[in-house]
Design brief:
GO molecular function: 4-amino-4-deoxychorismate lyase activity; pyridoxal phosphate binding
Keywords: Folate biosynthesis, Lyase, Pyridoxal phosphate
Structural class: alpha+beta
Protein name: aminodeoxychorismate lyase
Number of strands: 15
Number of domains: 2
Radius of gyration: 23 Å
InterPro entries: Aminodeoxychorismate_lyase_IV (IPR017824), Aminotrans_IV (IPR001544), Aminotransferase-like (IPR036038), BCAT-like_C (IPR043132), BCAT-like_N (IPR043131), Class-IV_PLP-Dep_Aminotrnsfr (IPR050571)
GO biological process, one term: folic acid biosynthetic process
Order of helices and strands: HHEEHEEHHEEEHHEEEHHEHEEEHE
CATH architecture of the largest domain: Alpha-Beta Barrel
Strand content: 15-25%
CATH superfamily of the largest domain: D-amino Acid Aminotransferase, subunit A, domain 2
Length: 340
Amino acid sequence: MAEKILDEIQGVEDVKVDVFPSSSELLEKLHEKWNTVKAKPYPAMYSSSFGGIILDPAMMVIPIDDHMVHRGHGVFDTAIIFNACLYELDEHLERFLRSASKARITSPFPKSILRSILIQLTAASNCKKGTVRYWLSAGPGDFLLSPAGCPKSAFYAVVIEDDFHQCKEGVKVITSTIPMKSPLFATMKNVNYLPNVLAKMEAEDKGAESSIWVDEEGYIAEGPNVNVAFITHEKELVLPAFDKILSGCTALRLLELAPELVKQGRLKSVKVENVKADEAEGSAEMMYVGSILPLLPIVMWDEKPIGDGKVGELTMALSDLLWEDMIAGPEAKRIEIPYV
């Protein structure tokens, strides 16, 4: 046994670790990775630590002593870039700042400046379709638990090119066995996403797209990064109440748009209420609702079909409403980007 341990130690001693005595040598090493990438997925980043927009992907980094990195003390949000416009940016920023308040993080900038930074960042990226993701952190300072040693909070944002499209194929989901977050953390869009990651991985292990959380009382909660919605056999659109889960901006927009189908006589009603899992499993149609989907039909749950096991007509009608809103909805929902 002692000989085996000695062999392992000697093996480690044989590993040569590079030392970069200058920033220029380090930068050259960082560029080696990106020089082999034809299409760079991150065309632009903003960092309040640098005080500006970064176009070199090798420099899109954050300090290791940032409390968002080693303590998870940060919040985030995402806005869609579609048809050269930012969709529902103001709604996402409002939620972003509510999350920051719950996490006791004070933004280094007022909302108007954050908004301006994100618009300028998108313009500098020249990205016409994708997402802009942004974070507020307690900031860099030290490796302690308390953020008291952090001089100032930090704001980061990155543009990600993504060719998303309307989802017309149904997917399979499972009920997650990973414990869901408490209401405080579930209603705050924070960077502590390990439960979400494990719930997604659990679904993938079982050949499913994603999962559904059910609370201890048997009520439907949400998916790992999406809301869920159901259509009953009485043609009622039902979304679970938002008191213990994140109030999705897209889900809220769906609730505003769906009454159009009620006017047309295609839906009977639209409502938000607590939904028992056994009732939800008996729905006629089911869907995920989230920003980059914006709506994904669900046709099977825990190996049992939802309705007839096919993508529902009303699901696609609701999807059409959201896509039409993204393409040609009210100007208040779409900010045109002043690309140079």
